[in-house]
Amino acid sequence: MTIVLDLAEDRRALRHPEKAHRPDTAVLRKPDWIRVKAPVSRGYAETRSIVRGHGLHTVCEEAGCPNIGECWTNRHATMMIMGDTCTRACAFCNVKTGLPGALDSEEPMNVGRAVAKLGLKHVVITSVDRDDLPDGGAEHFAQTIRAIREASPGTTVEVLTPDFLRKDGALEVVMDARPDVFNHNLETVPRLYLTVRPGARYYASLRLLERAKELALTGFTKSGLMVGLGEAREEIMQVMDDLRAARVDFLTIGQYLQPTRKHAPLDRFWSPEEFQSLEAIARAKGFLMVSASPLTRSSYHADSDFSQLQAARGSMP
C-alpha cells in the first residue's frame, strides 16, 4: 500500500493559516521513487505511544516527513523541543508559525526518559526557531543533551539547531554540552534565501557551522540541502565547496516536497541517478559522509550514518 502525501494538503493548510498569504501553486504528481508505505506497523504504534506518553513533539509529525513509517517502525523518532510553534515562516516548512508559549522546564527530562524507553543508540534533537528567547533556546538544547546523557548514558546525541538569530554566545552554550554531532542545515543555495528562507542569512549559517567545528573537539559537524526549489547544479557545487571550507564533515541532500499549495513551489523532481551523481561529487570534495537520495532527510538513518562517520574518521591517515 502506498500513500500520496499531497492528499493531506488541505488539512495541513487548515493547521497552518499563517502560510495563506502565499499564492497557490500547483503540486506536481510524485514519481514512483518518492512514494512511501503507509505507517501501520506495531513498532510505529509503540513509538507514537511513547512520544505521546511523555508529552513530546517530533519533527517527523510536525513537518510531515515521508519517512515516518519506516523510522518509527524502528523506534527512531526525532524529538522537536521548545514547542510546536515557530517564530519564522520559511516557505518550504510545514511547521506552524506564530507566537510560541513558555518553555516547559520538564521537557529535557521527559526527552531523556523517552530516549531511554525507546532504547535509542543515537538520537537527533531539533527545535522550532525561538527568536523570542534571549538565547534563541540554546540553554534548553544544552539541558536536553545533559538530560539524555543522564537517562541513557550509552546514547550518542545529535542536535539540529536553528541559527539562534545570530545571538552572541548561544552556540557556545550548546557546544559546552558536547553533542556528538552538531547539525545546522543551509537548506538551499544563497540565491534562493530571500524567498525560501527569508529569516536566515546564508553566510551567517556558514559561519555558525565553521565556529561549531572550532568548538567541537571530538564531535562532528553536519549540514543539509534540499533540491527541487529551482537551484542550478552549479550552485549546489558551490555550496558544497563553501561547506568544505567550513570543515563540515557530513552532508545530506534530499528532495524538496511541497507540503501544500501555499508553500514554495516545487520546480522539479531530481532523479535517483542525479542524487547518486551529487553524492559522488560530494565525496570527491572530501566530506567524511554523504547521504543523497530523494527521501534523504537530516535525521534519516542518523544512527547508522553516525557509525559510518566514526569509521570514516578512524580510517583517515
Key terms:
alpha/beta, TIM Barrel, eight-stranded mixed sheet, 12 helices
What's a concise summary of this model?
By secondary structure, this protein is of the alpha/beta class. The chain has twelve helices and ten strands.
Could you give the order of strands across the largest sheet? 3-4-5-6-7-8-9-10
CATH architect. name: Alpha-Beta Barrel
* Major beta-sheet overview: 8 strands, mixed
The CATH H-level superfamily is: Aldolase class I
Number of domains: 1
Q: Helical element count?
A: 12
CATH class group: Alpha Beta
The number of strands is 10
- The stretches of 5 or more residues where confidence is low (pLDDT under 50) are 1-22
Report the β-strand fraction as a percent range. Answer: 5-15%
How do the SSEs run, as a string of H and E? EHEHEHHEHEHEHEHHEHEHEH
The gyration radius over C-alpha positions equals 18 Å
Q: Work out the helicity level.
A: 25-40%
Amino- and carboxy-terminal Cα gap: 47 Å
What is the name of the CATH topology? TIM Barrel
Tertiary shape: globular
Structural class: alpha/beta
Summed over residues and divided by their number, the pLDDT gives a mean of 85
How does this structure look, described?
The chain is α/β, with parallel strands linked by helices and 317 residues long. The protein has one domain: Aldolase class I (TIM Barrel). The chain has helices spanning 9-15, 42-53, 59-62, 68-73, 107-118, 138-151, 170-176, 193-196, 202-215, 233-245, 272-284, 302-314; strands at residues 2-3, 36-37, 57-58, 79-81, 122-127, 156-160, 181-183, 220-227, 250-255, 289-292. α10 (233-245) links the parallel β8 and β9. α7 (170-176) packs parallel to α9. The longest helix has 14 residues, at 138-151. It is globular. Residues 1-22 have low confidence and may be disordered.
